[in-house]
Write a structure and sequence with these properties.
heterodimer, A: alpha+beta, 14 helices, 40% helix, rod-shaped, B: mainly alpha, 2 strands
Chain lengths: 376, 206
């Protein structure tokens, strides 16, 4: 004979038809003889009916709109990442910090034939010292590879703070196909990571330069083996935003042969870097050293882009410095990428000049481009 | 309830787009689930303001974490899991010990209603359809501890199976079973204790 307390414990299971066959019959049998349990069962049924009677309520009218507004804002914030979140202040020694590597393979030819006649001949004929491995079997086409190194948090998730993103550009002679090999190597961990780095993840970009740079903001989602992404996401203990931060990354020339001897190789590369990106949630600051003669060209280009997109722009020029302030409404976040792309092109071109000693910092002008996000 | 392969495929496509940062795609998912999500939050939290905040919060969490959604459970379950957690976190945070006095006036859209009003003469058929009565039921629900409230909302209002509840609340089936049983009993006792408010005590007794 089943006790009342056992019945009481199983009332819900009985009501929900969750009792297996023998118990179910025993339960029913008990009810026939036990008024108390029967009453209890009925009372519960009725109480539940009161819950069933609850109508669905409508969300507030502006629920959807308000939410979407917030989501766009979040997405936007992701795109304009803080460099500071993932670039430790002390890049060297790399020590305990995990370095993730991101490779970006871009077409050089578009750049060469592009809008920078002033520097074209230089870049075309005088590859930088920091060359990528010699690529076999290729058309005459040149490929520029930019390796993007991304410092990520260590396991503890403690985010060291740094502030700069440095860029170096390499030019390689050779075809595009060997890039596969290089990327594979890097995916296998052939590219050096600091010892003890718990994790890294590698990403690969291909396509034309514009697309690649413009897509920086989405890098986290492209071409990443899901399991690798998972590792990065989980074990690095990111919050979701931080993990996306990883997409913006220091751009550095990959060391020869895609493999470095420890960290020395990076030092050289960093020396070659000249542009500084600094990003916060609200704004992106880009600091350039520009040769005087190139300044008008840059300003024209930026102005054109900005005006075409009906963005507000403000110039303040002094002898030594030009400040360009661009206001970008949140909903025009694509424009930010375009502008950054443009500036990156500039930075690369500038670097080319510097590399071959045609730019003298004494004759240079500092250009501070601030791209600000405005709410509306 | 979502059913249908086509729907699932569409949803999978939307989710993939979300993973690529497509806010519009997520917006479509929001459109599909916002009412349910809001209702869960509303029943958990017991008032429209918190429900609004928490439902928004849940969608935002979902959006940020969409990359972690791997399709082990349905998107719906995954999403409701997030809502449930968001609400639970909030309830813990505000540490709102449910001390709703049943003698306090009930606030409705149309103003306050005094519980002690004598002339509540509802016909039995209509009794639960009445807005104020629904409000009263919600007040009683608010008196339950969050864990009980959660299982009752999911089981009785959302019609979840035991399995779905286990996944949503991240607990074992055994826990779900015993928790549902205790939650129901507690809620029944609450109603019994306040049966005079329903003006129809016999309905609850026999």
């Amino acid at each position: 004979m089943i006790s009342c307390s056992t019945i009481q414990d199983n009332i819900s299971a009985f009501l929900d038809d969750e009792l297996a066959s023998p118990e179910r019959e025993q339960f029913a049998e008990h009810l026939v003889n036990c008024k108390f349990c029967t009453q209890e069962l009925k009372a519960i049924e009725k109480a539940m009916r009161s819950l069933h009677s609850l109508d669905l309520v409508d969300p507030p009218k502006d629920f959807h709109e308000e939410l979407m507004g917030q989501l766009f804002k979040i997405q936007n914030t992701r795109v304009t990442k803080t460099a500071s979140k993932w670039l430790p202040r002390s890049w060297f020694p790399l020590g305990a910090v995990a370095a993730g590597l991101i490779l970006m393979v871009v077409s050089w030819s578009a750049f060469i034939n592009g809008e920078l006649p002033g520097i074209m001949p230089l870049t075309k004929n005088q590859p930088l010292e920091l060359a990528m491995p010699k690529m076999a079997s290729a058309p005459e086409e040149k490929t520029k590879q930019i390796a993007l190194f991304n410092e990520t948090d260590d396991m503890s998730g403690s985010a060291e703070v740094g502030s700069i993103e440095e860029i170096a550009v390499n030019e390689i002679t050779g075809g595009t196909s060997p890039a596969d090999g290089m990327i594979d190597k890097s995916a296998d961990g052939a590219l050096p990571l600091p010892e003890g780095s718990p994790h890294s993840y590698n990403q690969e970009f291909r396509g034309n330069e514009n697309e690649n740079i413009a897509n920086n903001g989405k890098a986290g989602k492209m071409g990443v083996a899901p399991e690798v992404q998972d590792i990065a996401d989980e074990s690095l203990n990111y919050d979701e935003e931080t993990s996306r931060d990883s997409r913006m990354m220091a751009m550095m020339g990959a060391p020869p042969d895609g493999q470095t001897k420890e960290n020395e190789g990076y030092n050289d590369l960093l020396v070659a870097a000249s542009g500084v990106f600094e990003e916060t949630k609200e704004e992106t600051e880009i600091l350039l050293e520009v040769a005087k003669e190139e300044l008008p060209q840059i300003i024209n280009k930026i102005e054109k882009i900005v005006k075409e997109r009906e963005l507000e722009i403000e110039f303040v020029s002094t002898e030594k410095e030009t400040k360009i302030d661009i206001q970008v409404p949140v909903y025009k976040q694509k424009e930010i990428e375009e502008i950054k792309l443009l500036v990156q092109e500039k930075m690369e071109s500038i670097k080319q000049i510097e590399q071959i000693g045609e730019s003298d910092s004494k004759t240079g002008i500092t250009v501070l481009i601030t791209i600000r996000l405005s709410e509306y | 309830m979502k059913g249908g392969l086509a729907v699932e495929i569409d949803e999978a496509k939307l989710i993939n787009r979300c993973k690529n940062g497509d806010v519009e795609a997520f917006g479509e998912l929001v459109s599909i689930y916002e009412k349910q999500v809001y209702n869960i939050a509303y029943r958990f939290m017991g008032n429209p303001d918190d429900a609004n905040d928490l439902a928004q919060e849940a969608f935002i969490r979902a959006f940020k974490g969409i990359e972690n959604f791997r399709g082990d459970a349905s998107f719906k379950t995954w999403l409701y899991h997030i809502v449930a957690n968001a609400c639970r976190d909030e309830l813990r945070k505000i540490n709102r010990q449910p001390v709703v006095s049943l003698n306090a006036p009930i606030i409705t859209e149309d103003g306050e209603i005094n519980r002690e009003q004598e002339d509540w003469t509802f016909s039995p058929e209509l009794i639960y359809e009445d807005k104020e009565l629904q409000e009263l039921i919600q007040q009683l629900l608010n008196e339950l501890i969050p864990e009980y409230r959660q299982v009752l909302v999911l089981r009785e209002i959302q019609g979840f199976t035991y399995d779905e509840i286990a996944v949503t609340l991240d607990c074992s089936l055994g826990t779900v079973k015993s928790r549902i049983n205790r939650a129901r009993k507690t809620f029944k006792d609450l109603i019994m204790a306040n049966r005079e408010l329903f003006q129809s005590p016999s309905r609850l007794e026999e």
